[in-house]
Protein backbone atom coordinates (compact mmCIF):
# COMPACT_ATOMS: atom_id res chain seq x y z
CA UNK A 1 0.00 0.00 0.00
CA UNK A 2 1.29 3.44 -0.92
CA UNK A 3 2.00 5.41 2.24
CA UNK A 4 1.52 9.11 2.89
CA UNK A 5 4.84 10.19 4.36
CA UNK A 6 3.44 13.28 6.07
CA UNK A 7 0.81 11.11 7.85
CA UNK A 8 3.65 8.96 9.22
CA UNK A 9 5.51 12.12 10.27
CA UNK A 10 2.40 13.37 12.08
CA UNK A 11 1.91 10.08 13.93
CA UNK A 12 5.60 10.04 14.88
CA UNK A 13 5.45 13.56 16.32
CA UNK A 14 2.28 12.81 18.26
CA UNK A 15 3.53 9.56 19.78
CA UNK A 16 6.64 11.45 20.88
CA UNK A 17 4.40 14.06 22.54
CA UNK A 18 2.38 11.30 24.26
CA UNK A 19 5.53 9.60 25.57
CA UNK A 20 6.89 12.91 26.89
CA UNK A 21 3.61 13.63 28.69
CA UNK A 22 3.51 10.12 30.16
CA UNK A 23 7.12 10.51 31.25
CA UNK A 24 6.18 13.47 33.41
CA UNK A 25 6.29 16.59 31.25
CA UNK A 26 2.86 17.75 32.38
CA UNK A 27 3.50 21.20 30.90
CA UNK A 28 2.92 19.54 27.51
CA UNK A 29 -0.42 18.13 28.61
CA UNK A 30 -2.40 20.38 26.28
CA UNK A 31 -1.02 18.53 23.27
CA UNK A 32 -3.26 15.60 24.21
CA UNK A 33 -6.08 17.71 22.81
CA UNK A 34 -4.74 16.98 19.32
CA UNK A 35 -2.24 14.11 19.74
CA UNK A 36 -4.74 11.32 20.32
CA UNK A 37 -7.32 12.75 17.87
CA UNK A 38 -4.62 12.74 15.20
CA UNK A 39 -4.30 8.95 15.41
CA UNK A 40 -8.04 8.67 14.77
CA UNK A 41 -7.92 11.27 11.98
CA UNK A 42 -4.98 9.47 10.34
CA UNK A 43 -7.05 6.28 10.19
CA UNK A 44 -9.84 8.16 8.45
CA UNK A 45 -7.39 9.86 6.09
CA UNK A 46 -5.94 6.55 4.91
CA UNK A 47 -9.35 4.86 4.55
CA UNK A 48 -10.36 3.97 0.98
CA UNK A 49 -14.02 3.46 0.13
CA UNK A 50 -14.68 0.37 -1.97
CA UNK A 51 -11.38 -1.36 -1.24
CA UNK A 52 -13.15 -3.78 1.12
CA UNK A 53 -16.72 -4.19 2.25
CA UNK A 54 -17.83 -3.33 5.78
CA UNK A 55 -17.50 -6.89 7.08
CA UNK A 56 -13.97 -7.24 5.67
CA UNK A 57 -12.93 -3.89 7.15
CA UNK A 58 -14.20 -4.80 10.62
CA UNK A 59 -12.59 -8.26 10.55
CA UNK A 60 -9.27 -6.78 9.45
CA UNK A 61 -9.34 -4.17 12.20
CA UNK A 62 -10.34 -6.74 14.80
CA UNK A 63 -7.29 -8.82 13.90
CA UNK A 64 -4.91 -5.85 13.90
CA UNK A 65 -6.26 -4.06 16.99
CA UNK A 66 -8.36 -6.26 19.24
CA UNK A 67 -6.39 -9.50 19.14
CA UNK A 68 -3.20 -7.67 20.27
CA UNK A 69 -5.30 -5.83 22.88
CA UNK A 70 -6.71 -9.05 24.38
CA UNK A 71 -3.28 -10.71 24.36
CA UNK A 72 -1.71 -7.71 26.10
CA UNK A 73 -4.51 -7.60 28.67
CA UNK A 74 -4.21 -11.34 29.28
CA UNK A 75 -0.48 -10.93 29.85
CA UNK A 76 -0.99 -8.00 32.20
CA UNK A 77 -3.80 -9.79 34.05
CA UNK A 78 -1.72 -12.93 34.67
CA UNK A 79 1.19 -10.84 35.93
CA UNK A 80 -1.14 -8.81 38.15
CA UNK A 81 -2.61 -11.97 39.65
CA UNK A 82 0.89 -13.32 40.28
CA UNK A 83 1.85 -10.01 41.82
CA UNK A 84 -1.27 -10.05 43.99
CA UNK A 85 -0.39 -13.47 45.38
CA UNK A 86 3.22 -12.46 46.03
CA UNK A 87 2.16 -9.46 48.08
CA UNK A 88 -0.77 -11.05 49.83
CA UNK A 89 -3.68 -9.04 48.49
CA UNK A 90 -4.87 -11.49 45.81
CA UNK A 91 -8.08 -13.47 45.63
CA UNK A 92 -10.84 -14.09 43.09
CA UNK A 93 -11.66 -10.38 43.05
CA UNK A 94 -8.35 -9.68 41.31
CA UNK A 95 -9.44 -11.80 38.35
CA UNK A 96 -12.87 -10.15 38.40
CA UNK A 97 -11.28 -6.70 38.38
CA UNK A 98 -9.09 -7.75 35.48
CA UNK A 99 -12.13 -8.92 33.51
CA UNK A 100 -14.05 -5.71 34.19
CA UNK A 101 -11.13 -3.53 33.17
CA UNK A 102 -10.61 -5.55 29.98
CA UNK A 103 -14.25 -5.17 28.97
CA UNK A 104 -14.25 -1.48 29.80
CA UNK A 105 -11.07 -0.85 27.85
CA UNK A 106 -9.15 0.26 30.91
CA UNK A 107 -5.99 -1.26 32.32
CA UNK A 108 -4.50 -3.69 34.78
CA UNK A 109 -1.22 -2.63 36.28
CA UNK A 110 1.51 -5.18 35.61
CA UNK A 111 4.92 -6.59 36.44
CA UNK A 112 6.15 -8.70 39.31
CA UNK A 113 9.26 -7.69 41.21
CA UNK A 114 10.19 -10.74 43.24
CA UNK A 115 13.98 -10.58 42.68
CA UNK A 116 15.14 -7.64 44.75
CA UNK A 117 13.57 -6.52 48.01
CA UNK A 118 13.71 -2.91 46.87
CA UNK A 119 11.94 -3.76 43.64
CA UNK A 120 9.33 -5.72 45.63
CA UNK A 121 8.82 -2.66 47.78
CA UNK A 122 8.11 -0.58 44.70
CA UNK A 123 5.76 -3.21 43.35
CA UNK A 124 3.73 -3.48 46.57
CA UNK A 125 3.62 0.27 47.21
CA UNK A 126 0.07 1.38 48.06
CA UNK A 127 -1.52 -1.65 46.40
CA UNK A 128 -5.29 -1.62 46.68
CA UNK A 129 -6.32 -4.36 49.15
CA UNK A 130 -9.65 -5.23 47.52
CA UNK A 131 -9.16 -5.31 43.77
CA UNK A 132 -5.42 -5.69 43.37
CA UNK A 133 -5.28 -2.43 41.44
CA UNK A 134 -2.17 -0.39 42.16
CA UNK A 135 -3.23 3.25 41.97
CA UNK A 136 0.33 4.53 41.93
CA UNK A 137 2.04 2.52 39.20
CA UNK A 138 -0.32 2.01 36.25
CA UNK A 139 1.77 0.87 33.31
CA UNK A 140 -0.90 -0.04 30.79
CA UNK A 141 -3.84 2.27 31.45
CA UNK A 142 -2.97 3.77 28.06
CA UNK A 143 -4.46 0.66 26.42
CA UNK A 144 -7.89 2.33 26.53
CA UNK A 145 -6.93 3.57 23.08
CA UNK A 146 -7.10 0.16 21.39
CA UNK A 147 -10.77 -0.73 22.08
CA UNK A 148 -11.68 2.93 21.52
CA UNK A 149 -9.93 2.79 18.13
CA UNK A 150 -11.78 -0.38 17.17
CA UNK A 151 -15.14 0.96 18.32
CA UNK A 152 -14.49 4.22 16.48
CA UNK A 153 -13.57 2.34 13.32
CA UNK A 154 -16.76 0.26 13.36
CA UNK A 155 -18.87 3.42 13.72
CA UNK A 156 -16.86 5.37 11.16
CA UNK A 157 -16.81 2.67 8.47
CA UNK A 158 -20.56 2.15 8.94
CA UNK A 159 -21.51 5.78 8.24
CA UNK A 160 -18.74 7.29 6.10
CA UNK A 161 -20.18 6.18 2.76
CA UNK A 162 -23.75 7.09 3.71
CA UNK A 163 -22.93 10.73 4.55
CA UNK A 164 -20.28 11.23 1.87
CA UNK A 165 -22.39 13.17 -0.64
CA UNK A 166 -24.60 15.20 1.68
CA UNK A 167 -23.11 18.12 3.62
CA UNK A 168 -26.06 18.43 6.02
CA UNK A 169 -25.81 14.76 6.95
CA UNK A 170 -22.11 15.29 7.73
CA UNK A 171 -22.95 18.02 10.22
CA UNK A 172 -25.80 16.05 11.76
CA UNK A 173 -23.78 12.84 12.22
CA UNK A 174 -20.93 14.73 13.90
CA UNK A 175 -23.35 16.47 16.29
CA UNK A 176 -25.09 13.15 17.02
CA UNK A 177 -21.83 11.31 17.75
CA UNK A 178 -20.51 14.10 19.99
CA UNK A 179 -23.79 14.19 21.92
CA UNK A 180 -23.59 10.43 22.49
CA UNK A 181 -19.97 10.78 23.59
CA UNK A 182 -21.12 13.41 26.10
CA UNK A 183 -23.01 10.79 28.13
CA UNK A 184 -19.86 10.11 30.17
CA UNK A 185 -19.65 13.82 31.04
CA UNK A 186 -23.31 14.71 31.55
CA UNK A 187 -23.99 11.53 33.53
CA UNK A 188 -20.75 10.90 35.43
CA UNK A 189 -22.42 8.21 37.50
CA UNK A 190 -22.45 6.13 34.32
CA UNK A 191 -18.67 6.28 34.50
CA UNK A 192 -16.88 4.96 31.43
CA UNK A 193 -19.10 3.37 28.80
CA UNK A 194 -18.16 -0.25 28.07
CA UNK A 195 -15.42 -1.11 25.63
CA UNK A 196 -14.15 2.40 25.08
CA UNK A 197 -17.48 3.43 23.56
CA UNK A 198 -17.41 7.01 24.86
CA UNK A 199 -14.01 7.82 23.41
CA UNK A 200 -14.76 5.62 20.42
CA UNK A 201 -17.70 7.87 19.55
CA UNK A 202 -15.60 11.03 19.65
CA UNK A 203 -12.84 9.10 17.86
CA UNK A 204 -15.24 8.31 15.00
CA UNK A 205 -15.83 12.04 14.49
CA UNK A 206 -12.08 12.58 14.09
CA UNK A 207 -11.92 9.67 11.63
CA UNK A 208 -14.64 11.38 9.60
CA UNK A 209 -12.71 14.65 9.80
CA UNK A 210 -9.55 12.94 8.52
CA UNK A 211 -11.44 11.23 5.69
CA UNK A 212 -13.05 14.48 4.57
CA UNK A 213 -9.68 16.24 4.51
CA UNK A 214 -8.49 13.70 1.96
CA UNK A 215 -11.79 13.26 0.13
CA UNK A 216 -12.09 16.98 -0.61
CA UNK A 217 -8.32 17.47 -1.10
CA UNK A 218 -8.32 20.18 1.56
CA UNK A 219 -4.65 20.09 2.51
CA UNK A 220 -2.56 18.97 -0.45
CA UNK A 221 -1.17 21.21 -3.21
CA UNK A 222 -2.49 24.48 -1.83
CA UNK A 223 -1.02 27.98 -1.95
CA UNK A 224 1.07 29.49 0.82
CA UNK A 225 -1.66 32.00 1.61
CA UNK A 226 -4.17 29.17 2.06
CA UNK A 227 -1.95 27.45 4.63
CA UNK A 228 -1.29 30.68 6.50
CA UNK A 229 -4.97 31.58 6.70
CA UNK A 230 -6.23 28.12 7.68
CA UNK A 231 -3.52 27.60 10.28
CA UNK A 232 -4.08 31.03 11.82
CA UNK A 233 -7.77 30.20 12.15
CA UNK A 234 -6.93 26.74 13.50
CA UNK A 235 -4.61 28.23 16.12
CA UNK A 236 -7.37 30.57 17.31
CA UNK A 237 -9.83 27.66 17.56
CA UNK A 238 -7.28 25.48 19.34
CA UNK A 239 -6.42 28.09 21.98
CA UNK A 240 -10.11 28.93 22.43
CA UNK A 241 -10.91 25.26 22.96
CA UNK A 242 -8.21 25.05 25.64
CA UNK A 243 -9.82 27.86 27.62
CA UNK A 244 -13.33 26.48 27.27
CA UNK A 245 -12.19 22.97 28.13
CA UNK A 246 -10.18 24.07 31.16
CA UNK A 247 -12.45 26.72 32.67
CA UNK A 248 -10.10 29.52 31.62
CA UNK A 249 -6.84 28.07 32.93
CA UNK A 250 -5.58 27.07 29.45
CA UNK A 251 -4.46 23.78 30.96
CA UNK A 252 -6.41 20.72 29.93
CA UNK A 253 -5.72 17.80 32.23
CA UNK A 254 -8.28 15.50 30.62
CA UNK A 255 -10.24 15.15 27.40
CA UNK A 256 -13.39 16.52 28.99
CA UNK A 257 -13.66 19.91 30.67
CA UNK A 258 -16.11 21.32 33.24
CA UNK A 259 -18.89 22.49 30.90
CA UNK A 260 -20.53 19.17 30.04
CA UNK A 261 -21.58 18.85 26.41
CA UNK A 262 -19.97 22.20 25.52
CA UNK A 263 -16.62 20.89 26.73
CA UNK A 264 -16.92 17.80 24.53
CA UNK A 265 -17.73 19.94 21.49
CA UNK A 266 -14.74 22.12 22.39
CA UNK A 267 -12.60 18.97 22.55
CA UNK A 268 -13.67 18.05 19.02
CA UNK A 269 -13.20 21.55 17.57
CA UNK A 270 -9.87 22.11 19.33
CA UNK A 271 -8.65 18.63 18.47
CA UNK A 272 -9.59 19.05 14.81
CA UNK A 273 -7.82 22.42 14.70
CA UNK A 274 -4.71 20.88 16.26
CA UNK A 275 -4.79 17.99 13.79
CA UNK A 276 -4.89 20.48 10.90
CA UNK A 277 -1.88 22.38 12.27
CA UNK A 278 0.16 19.19 12.71
CA UNK A 279 -0.69 17.92 9.22
CA UNK A 280 0.25 21.28 7.72
CA UNK A 281 3.55 21.22 9.59
CA UNK A 282 4.28 17.73 8.32
CA UNK A 283 3.52 18.80 4.75
CA UNK A 284 6.32 21.35 5.21
CA UNK A 285 8.64 18.70 6.68
CA UNK A 286 8.04 16.52 3.60
CA UNK A 287 9.49 19.31 1.42
CA UNK A 288 12.64 19.79 3.52
CA UNK A 289 15.97 18.21 2.45
CA UNK A 290 16.55 16.55 5.86
CA UNK A 291 16.52 12.93 4.68
CA UNK A 292 17.70 11.30 7.91
CA UNK A 293 15.17 13.12 10.06
CA UNK A 294 12.38 12.24 7.64
CA UNK A 295 13.55 8.64 7.55
CA UNK A 296 13.43 8.43 11.36
CA UNK A 297 9.99 10.07 11.49
CA UNK A 298 8.69 7.75 8.78
CA UNK A 299 9.98 4.64 10.58
CA UNK A 300 8.49 5.82 13.88
CA UNK A 301 5.15 6.56 12.22
CA UNK A 302 5.02 3.11 10.66
CA UNK A 303 5.63 1.51 14.06
CA UNK A 304 3.60 3.90 16.19
CA UNK A 305 1.32 1.15 17.55
CA UNK A 306 4.31 -0.77 18.89
CA UNK A 307 5.56 2.32 20.69
CA UNK A 308 2.09 3.06 22.02
CA UNK A 309 1.43 -0.48 23.24
CA UNK A 310 4.71 -0.93 25.11
CA UNK A 311 6.00 2.50 26.09
CA UNK A 312 4.50 2.52 29.60
CA UNK A 313 5.87 -0.95 30.36
CA UNK A 314 9.36 0.12 29.28
CA UNK A 315 8.98 3.35 31.24
CA UNK A 316 8.06 1.46 34.40
CA UNK A 317 11.21 -0.66 34.22
CA UNK A 318 13.34 2.45 33.79
CA UNK A 319 11.54 4.04 36.75
CA UNK A 320 12.40 0.99 38.85
CA UNK A 321 16.06 1.32 37.86
CA UNK A 322 15.93 5.00 38.75
CA UNK A 323 14.53 4.38 42.24
CA UNK A 324 16.44 1.17 43.06
CA UNK A 325 19.87 2.10 41.70
CA UNK A 326 20.19 5.84 41.09
CA UNK A 327 18.23 6.76 44.22
CA UNK A 328 19.65 3.81 46.18
CA UNK A 329 16.21 2.47 47.10
CA UNK A 330 15.14 5.75 48.68
CA UNK A 331 11.41 5.02 48.89
CA UNK A 332 10.60 8.61 49.81
CA UNK A 333 10.86 9.15 46.04
CA UNK A 334 7.62 7.20 45.74
CA UNK A 335 5.77 9.92 47.63
CA UNK A 336 6.06 12.08 44.53
CA UNK A 337 5.20 9.24 42.20
CA UNK A 338 1.71 9.88 40.88
CA UNK A 339 -0.11 7.89 38.21
CA UNK A 340 3.10 6.31 37.02
CA UNK A 341 4.90 9.61 36.45
CA UNK A 342 8.28 10.37 37.94
CA UNK A 343 8.55 13.52 40.12
CA UNK A 344 8.97 16.60 38.01
CA UNK A 345 12.14 17.64 39.82
CA UNK A 346 13.91 14.83 37.98
CA UNK A 347 14.05 16.79 34.73
CA UNK A 348 17.25 15.23 33.39
CA UNK A 349 16.02 11.70 34.04
CA UNK A 350 12.61 12.43 32.50
CA UNK A 351 14.28 13.73 29.34
CA UNK A 352 16.58 10.72 29.18
CA UNK A 353 13.70 8.37 29.92
CA UNK A 354 11.43 9.76 27.20
CA UNK A 355 14.14 9.38 24.56
CA UNK A 356 15.16 5.95 25.87
CA UNK A 357 11.55 4.67 25.93
CA UNK A 358 10.95 5.64 22.30
CA UNK A 359 14.31 4.19 21.22
CA UNK A 360 13.80 0.87 23.00
CA UNK A 361 10.26 0.48 21.65
CA UNK A 362 11.51 1.17 18.11
CA UNK A 363 13.94 -1.73 18.50
CA UNK A 364 11.06 -4.20 18.87
CA UNK A 365 10.08 -4.21 15.17
CA UNK A 366 13.75 -4.64 14.19
CA UNK A 367 14.13 -7.56 16.60
CA UNK A 368 10.94 -9.18 15.31
CA UNK A 369 12.02 -8.73 11.69
CA UNK A 370 15.49 -10.15 12.30
CA UNK A 371 14.06 -13.09 14.27
CA UNK A 372 11.74 -13.97 11.39
CA UNK A 373 14.66 -13.83 8.98
CA UNK A 374 16.64 -16.14 11.24
CA UNK A 375 13.76 -18.63 11.50
CA UNK A 376 13.25 -18.58 7.75
CA UNK A 377 16.96 -19.24 7.30
CA UNK A 378 16.75 -22.29 9.51
Provide tags for this entry.
mainly alpha, 14 helices, 378 residues
Which residues sit in consecutive blocks of at least 5 with pLDDT less than 50? 106-116, 118-139, 248-253
Helix content: 55-70%
- H/E element order: HHHHHHHHHHHHHH
Q: DSSP helix count? A: 14
Overview of the molecule:
It is a single chain. The protein is an all-alpha fold. About 65% of the residues lie in helices and about 0% in strands. It has 14 helices and no strands. The longest helix has about 35 residues. It is globular, with a radius of gyration of 21 Å.
Map the helices and strands.
Elements: H1 5-23, H2 32-45, H3 54-86, H4 92-103, H5 117-124, H6 145-159, H7 167-181, H8 183-186, H9 197-215, H10 224-245, H11 261-287, H12 291-302, H13 304-326, H14 347-377
Helix pairs in contact: 1-2, 1-11, 1-12, 1-13, 1-14, 2-9, 2-11, 3-4, 3-6, 6-9, 7-9, 7-11, 9-11, 10-11, 13-14
Amino acid sequence: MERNNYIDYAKALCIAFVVFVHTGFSALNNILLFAMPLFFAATGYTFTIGKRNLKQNIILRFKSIMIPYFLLMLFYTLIEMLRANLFGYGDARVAYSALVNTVYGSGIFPFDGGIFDSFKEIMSYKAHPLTGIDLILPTNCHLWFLPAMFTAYVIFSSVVKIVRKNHLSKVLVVIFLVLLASVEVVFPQACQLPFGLGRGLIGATFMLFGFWIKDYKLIENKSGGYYILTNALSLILFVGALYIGSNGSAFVSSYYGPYGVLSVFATFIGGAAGVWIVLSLCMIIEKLPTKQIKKLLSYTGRNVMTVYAWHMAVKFLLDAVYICIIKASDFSVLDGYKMGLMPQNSMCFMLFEAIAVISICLLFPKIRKNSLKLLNGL
